[in-house]
Amino acid sequence: MHQIARTPKDIGNALRKARKARKLTQGELATQAGIWQRTVSTIETSASGAKLDTIFDLLAALDLEIHIVPRSKAKPGDLEDIF
Amino acid sequence: MHQIARTPKDIGNALRKARKARKLTQGELATQAGIWQRTVSTIETSASGAKLDTIFDLLAALDLEIHIVPRSKAKPGDLEDIF
DNA sequence: TTCGTTTATGCTCCCCGGATCATAATCTCT
DNA sequence: AGAGATTATGATCCGGGGAGCATAAACGAA
Questions:
Q1: CB B34 within 8 A of CB A32
Q2: Which of A46, B45, B46, B58 has its CA 20 to 30 A from that of B16?
Q3: Backbone angles phi, psi at A65, to 5 degrees
């Protein structure tokens, strides 16, 4: 069930999923990420057109990183050279 | 040489790399992504705190997607369940 | 070196995300 | 159902990104 994102909304969903898996509240995560609960909520739901900075703050707090992969090869266990 | 990103700057580098691999100019990519050459340049260099929307526009134009992965397991060929 | 292409930047305007504080709405557990 | 925790939102202010257009600077090939 690994997370793939092609839209801001996907990011929001993934972040929420990761947060819940870690049993954190939005408030706790926000604090750790150095942002506001309000912002976490907004990003998880509408995920609007958030700023990259904020997203990376959240990813860092969740100990996640991003892999940039060609769409076609989007199969787990299939990761290889991209460019 | 697959692309990992933990900061906006990483994204900028990855996008530039992908664009060049496809032999596109910033202008061409910008057009395909529906944004401005100016913006492509800014994102590739400073990568500032761009907006998610813009990044996804570029990723789509380059036929790329994002995988969200735990930092520790950040080894190619190692992709598996994340949450 | 010189011409043509590609990329970096200056500037203004507008929009919207995030900070900040507060409260409403929801969910959850008993 | 009721209390307590969690999440969604209202309102305002501010900063910065991207649109839009133009030009300078840098790069590349002949």
A1: no
A2: A46
A3: -140, 175
Among candidate residues B1, B4, B2, the one with its CA nearest the CA of residue B70: B4
Mutate to test the interface with A, among B7, B22, B79, B83 (most CBs of A within 10 A): B83
In chain A, whose CA is at the least distance from the CA of B4? A67
Q: What is the pLDDT of residues A6-48, one digit of tens each?
A: 999 999 999 999 999 999 999 999 999 999 999 999 999 976 7
Q: Using a CB-CB distance cutoff of 8 angstroms, which residues of chain B are in contact with residue A4? A: 65-68
Tokens of B51: 């907006």
Contact of A83 with A70, CB cutoff 8 Å: no
Measured over the CA atoms of residue A77, residue B57, residue B55 and residue B44, the dihedral's sign is positive
Written as six digits, the tokens of B69 are 């992965």
Instruction: Please name the residue that has the structure tokens 């380059």.
Output: B62
pTM to 2 decimal places:
0.85
- pLDDT at residue A81 above 50? no
Q: Which helix (H) or strand (E) holds B32?
A: helix B26-33
Would you state the structure tokens that stand for residue B57, as one six-digit string?
A: 């526009």
